[in-house]
Amino acid sequence: MLKAFFTAAALAVALAAFLTSGPGQDCLLQVACWRWKLRPQADTVDMRHRLKKLKAPFLELPLLTAYIARNTRLVELNLAYNEADDAFAVAVSQGIAANCAVRSLHMHYNAIGDAGAAALADTITARSCDLPILDLAFNNIGDAGAEALIEPMRRRRTSAILAGNSVMTHL
Q: H or E element: which one contains 145?
């Protein structure tokens, strides 16, 4: 039984790796659009409450990453109220790293912690373009996550909203 589980998990990881590279990207984008009833080239996407309790996060997070990365018209993305954790934030950060069109990212009222904030900070640093609005209000971000965001925010002129977190650092 345990062997079957590991085999299925390995297959899921291999499938996700294939779909997130090369020609698999277009296939993954189509699946994401079908799964969440999205338009492939929407400029504003509101997915509040729509991603709660993903049935298979190790399969669905690559869908989200691919959708964000491949939708070159996407300017504003609202992923608030999804009970999203650090793995979710990492998937989103991978998507926006590949897409300079995204200018506004709203991820308030989730469960993102310091690791998710650090992943987003790394993405802000690595992007060749600015991300003017980053809303991370009411998550689980502490001082370490806020510290990770300070320099990238300053360098890239990003306005981060961190109200409602357990941040004690004065930004």
A: helix 143-156
- Enter the tokens of residue 82: 């999804």
Q: Which of 110, 112, 6, 105 is nearest to 49 (CA)?
A: 110
Q: What angle do CA 42, 84, 151 make, to 5 degrees?
A: 85
Averages of pLDDT over each 10 residues, the chain, 171 residues: 49 55 64 80 88 71 88 94 93 94 96 97 92 96 95 89 80 52
Three-class SS string for 112-133? CCHHHHHHHHHHHHHCCCCCCE
Identify which of 149, 154, 77 has the alpha carbon closest to the alpha carbon of residue 116: 149
Question: Please, are residues 134 and 103 in contact by the beta-carbon 8 Å criterion?
Answer: no
Residue listed under structure tokens 């899921």: 12
pTM of the model: 0.80
Task: Report pLDDT for 4.
Answer: 47
